[in-house]
Amino acid sequence: MHGKYSILKLAGLTAGLIAALGVSAAAHNYEHTSWRLSVAAVGQEQAELSTLVNTTVSVLESDAFFRNLKDGVDQSDIIARDFKVVSGAEVPVPISVEELTSILQFKQSGMWKFRQSVTLMGTYWNQGPMYIGQCSNPAGPSPLPCKRAKFTDNNTNQFATNRAIKPGEDTLLEILIGRELHKRYLKDDPFKKSCAINTLSHEILHGFAPDTGKIHTTYFRDTDANGQRFNSQSPLATYYVGSVAQCTWLQRKGLVGNTKTELRTCLARYGTNEFLSNQCDD
Length: 282
Prior knowledge:
Layout lengths: L10 E2 L2 H7 L8 E3 L4 E3 L3 H18 L2 H9 L7 E8 L2 E7 L1 H8 L6 E3 L1 E6 L8 E4 L2 E2 L10 E4 L9 E6 L6 E6 L1 H8 L3 H16 L2 E3 L4 E2 L20 H16 L7 H11 L12
Parallel strand pairs: 3-7, 7-12
Antiparallel strand pairs: 1-2, 2-3, 4-5, 6-13, 8-10, 9-14, 11-12
Helix pairs in contact: 2-6, 3-7, 5-6, 6-7, 7-8
């Protein structure tokens, strides 16, 4: 998919589409056709992750979310989508709320959306080889192969991460949800539950990239090549979107007020330049 996307509801994958993706029906049981999200799980975990994906997408498509995206910062605030090093110092690459909104509404021309499969860490889906680094589109003149690494079940309790699998013309990213985060989503406490919405929204944003026709590299970064988070006092787009989604869902539940002050208090609680995960602890 390229360019503008229509906003569609979840739809079941046909056998032909499943075959085209090169995966089994059990592994990927549906795809959200605009956000290009699928679930890789079976049984109860499939139902639970599907609910999380549906809930998160419903927030990201809501008018309240886009209103909060605008109200959560002042016009003078800089939202960083990436960083570059200038004279040894990290300098933010800014993005406006208007551009961020356009991307999330699939109205930004020249933007690519990776397919992303949502699964849990430590399941049999995660035992095969993984790919790291930039992944190429072989149709381009100079394809860049991905590096290969091996994924293990270590750190299954961390929050979430993205990894690239099946690199090629239409690379699939896998969003690995940590089991501790998954447990929080299943809790009756809505504040704990909302942390999973934050994290999934954050990871979804990593799935957008400029459509170069060659190598697709995420438009939104919050860590350097060594996996170290950028040292930013400004909001980082991935964390900002995650917390706005979380606070929007809490507003929906009547647990956060609808004023700008109440919204910003909620955003400060969960963080906009990092995820304050201690707020999600038991």
